[in-house]
Amino acid sequence: MRIPQILKFERKKNLAGQGADQNKSGGKSRNKGAKGHLNIDLAKGENYSEDQSIQGLSELYSPEEVGESHIYDIIDILLDMGKLTPEEHACVRAEQSAKPDSDVETIMLKMGLLTNSPDDILIAKAGLYGQEFVHIEPEKVEKEAFAKLGMDFIRSSCICPIAIEDNVLVAATSEPANVFAIEDAKRQTRMELRVVVCSAKDIAAVCDWFKKQEEKVDYNVDEIISDMTEVEVVQDKEELSEDLEKMAGQSPVIKFVNYLISTAINEGASDIHIEPKDKFTRVRYRIDGVLFEKMQPPLKMHPAIVSRIKIMSNLDISERRLPQDGKISVIVGNRAIDLRVSTLPTNHGEKVVIRILDSKTALRGLEQLGMEPAVMEAFRRQIDLPHGILLVTGPTGSGKSTTLYSALCQMNGNELNISTVEDPVEYELDFCNQVQVSEKIGLDFATALRSLLRQDPDIIMIGEIRDNQTARIAVQAALTGHLVLSTLHTNDAASSITRLVNIGIDSYLIAASLNAALAQRLVRRICPDCKRIYKVPENMRKYVEKAGVKPEELFIGAGCDKCRGSGYAGRIGIYELLVIDDTFRDMINKDSSVSNMRRVFHEIKQPSLFDDGIRKVKRGLTTIEEVLRVTEVYGQNENEVFINEN
Ligand SMILES: [Zn+2]
């Protein structure tokens, strides 16, 4: 670490001036550059008591020097460094006298001075405080030193321990003026501190690097698996539960299961599948709707892994011939995540699927769902309606619940009584009354709904309309002045009407109560890290050209480490919104067959799922293959409109 030339400036004089000012301000107000040429950020020292701060300052400043008239500041140093011309220096000085409330850094920024060399300002600051300016390389930071302060503190106060030299902690800061943070670091580490100056960017890089290391350290999967083979396994099919419990409690097994869960969460998986095969156990993660094989631990470990998961989710480890389901709550990276565990006996042993309910990925604002502006506007209007039924349709895993939750989040939970009946309650919303259906005790959708309607509701969300009774109550509720949100398993918006008829609801009631149906699918988003233009294969060209897209303008993900070679990262929704207007109501009353409903939908020229998908293809968000995969081929031209009739 090289000490720059500027250190020869007489720093005590400058510091004395600041010390005097600082003492006056007493650590209570933000006094940035108000008097003299102070540049001390007091905002960060809020937790400090006056006594502590003054005591801290006394160690930094020499009281006998107080009262020196000339105050050096960073622009003087920058002038001496040759980074500012005398003219620029004079300009800044003049501006500063004119506006004593603004600090020199802001003034220089406004004048466009040194904007391309932020390091120079830091070097000048370091000089001002008699400190060394350094560049830190994350790999060279001593782990032991870094661990002296918490990561959050390091990030928020921009002070980062980098080494320990002769019992003195060397800490780099990007805010050398923030004496309170420095004092706080001293107090926390109970060590003497030598402060050096670095850029905020460097500190962020160090934190990121250590965070990555942390994630790696615990989990060397090969090591864990080789450790696991050491675990004593009882091979007998009729193992006793004590043996299983013992096995499951061995640390390599615990480590392995923890690894499975935490990596799945970190990689954004929605499900973990642990399947016993003939010769090995297969572990797969579902990421963005597609399963990826993650690893193949030895088959003899399977009972231990399953038992461990069962213990975590309070299941009966001795029962291995019947399916079971349970729940685990884990904390990963400071957030609580619910896991739903289900076991299923198969010919090679028990298969376990863990569903990850991560509220962070599931609860989104409406604007994050990927609706086109026009669809979004229309959908918002639907949410604001006082009564009627709003349906979201699509197969399992098409993001219906996320859309409904987002819609509920738009509503005013303080002024409205929002109640839900769900199976299961996936995410907890604190502004709603959520009821969990429980068939075991006779609380089915219909029963729960009836009770809920006696509770003066405004908005009712029904997890799914599956049967006649639930559908009837939903219609009744909608017709008696409530807004009902629910989901249906249908392929497109138009066939939701036919589905309701098939469930046994009269067409005239549907016509009277249904406001709108939104069909949706999730398509995978092209990975931004490996996105490139690609040549559309011949068999795809017809779809692309029919949709009016130039085949030369399409993108694809080539596959990279970040996307596990898949070319996709994350998902986005595609939507088809059918708003029931008077024309449509008449049609429902006359003929509610799927084909007729689809024809009318086509005639009113609403963009279909496929059209919406194509818009996203055009914008380079997804690929034509993805859109075809999820939409099934219908709707893109007259001949193919009715292909998908069921
Ligand atoms: Zn990629």
Outline the secondary-structure elements.
Layout: H1 11-25, H2 50-60, H3 74-81, H4 86-98, H5 104-111, H6 118-128, E1 132-133, H7 143-146, H8 151-157, E2 159-165, E3 168-173, H9 179-189, E4 192-197, H10 200-217, H11 221-228, H12 241-248, H13 251-266, E5 269-276, E6 281-287, E7 290-295, H14 302-312, E8 324-332, E9 335-346, E10 349-357, H15 359-362, H16 373-384, E11 388-393, H17 400-410, E12 418-422, E13 433-436, H18 445-453, E14 459-462, H19 468-479, E15 483-488, H20 495-503, H21 507-513, E16 514-526, E17 531-533, H22 538-546, E18 555-557, E19 568-579, H23 582-590, H24 594-603, H25 609-618, H26 624-631
Parallel strand pairs: 1-4, 3-4, 11-15, 11-16, 12-13, 12-14, 14-15
Antiparallel strand pairs: 2-3, 5-6, 5-10, 6-7, 8-9, 9-10, 16-19, 17-18
Bound molecules: zinc ion.
Please give a structural write-up:
The protein is of the alpha/beta class. It is built from 26 helices and 19 strands. β14 (459-462), α19 and β15 form a beta-alpha-beta unit. α3 (74-81) crosses α6 (118-128), α18 packs parallel to α19 and α19 crosses α21. It is globular and about 90 Å long. The model is unreliable at 1-69 and 634-646 (pLDDT under 50). The protein binds zinc ion. Zinc ion binds next to loops.
